[in-house]
Amino acid sequence: MTKEATQRDELMEAATRRASGFGPGLRRLGWRGATAAIARSIGLPAKTLGRIADGAQLPTYAQALLIAQAIGRPLEDISGPLRAPAVGQRQRRKIAAEYGEWNLVDVDVLSPGPVELLLLPESGERGTRHDGVEWLYVSRGSVQIDFGYRDDAVRLEERELYSFDASTPHALFNVGDQNAVVLRGMSVLGLQLHTEELRREDRFEPKARPGRA
């Protein structure tokens, strides 16, 4: 087995451990919410939400964020902190860009591959596209995502979650007056393309902040 395959297996194992604590965490907090109503509000089948709450099904990272937001509790209150105490497998790799920095989230997370992007005020990235679906969760600040040849753009505020077809050209901008921090989930190829592009000045560079919506 290659080193990359071994690291991937370790990441999946850590992800499973973290996700397996989500349902018990809900029960530990005494959550007995209106499952059907909450499921409708976040676009999740009530049966799926019930299985997650019972611990019979592991949530994806995006599902966990939506559920936590819907019941008004921080994600770390339910499943524990995203970053566990050091046990010899914590990893955090920083990739600097002129407009901010990307950080690979530590191994012990709910699902493999999420990255944390810090965007400086009035800055953004030049677009790229890749396979699969990409999701964004704004943990601080305000951002706007532009979509290539389409005229529409989506503005996201703190604690908002959004997903889209990543085969459409897309670029993320900070439209606030403070640093913005965004969690991004994407395919392995998407992550490779994004982080490779950060090293190529001909493809990524700071851009003027788009007009406020």
TrEMBL record:
Domain Cupin type-2 per the UniProt entry, residue ranges: 128-183
Which Pfam families does the record associate with it? Cupin_2
- Extract the InterPro entries matched here: Cupin_2, RmlC-like_jellyroll, RmlC_Cupin_sf
The UniProt entry, under Gene3D superfamilies, shows: Jelly Rolls
- The protein's name is XRE family transcriptional regulator
